[in-house]
Amino acid sequence: MLLGSIGLAALLGWLDYLLIPALLFFIGLTLYASSRRDGKTGRERGCE
C-alpha cells in the first residue's frame, strides 16, 4: 500500500506545476472581478 501511494505521488507530482498557477490565476481573476464591481449596481455598470 505504501509503495502504491509513493508510485501514485511520483506519477502525479507534475500536477503541481499545472494546478498552482491555475489556482493563482483564478484567485487573481476573482480579486479583479470584485474590484471591478466596487459596489456598483447593474444599472450603473450599463446592465439593465
Show the helix and strand layout.
Elements lengths: L1 H11 L3 H22 L4 H4 L3
Keywords: Membrane, Transmembrane, Transmembrane helix
List the keywords.
membrane, mainly alpha, 77% helix, transmembrane, Mercury_ion_transport_MerF, rod-shaped, transmembrane helix
Structure description:
It holds the Pfam family Transport_MerF. The chain crosses the membrane at residues 6-33. The protein is rod-shaped and about 60 Å long. The protein contains 3 helices and no strands. The mean pLDDT is 79. It has helices spanning 2-12, 16-37, 42-45. It has 48 residues and is mostly helical. The protein has a domain at 8-34.
Short description:
By secondary structure, this protein is mainly α.
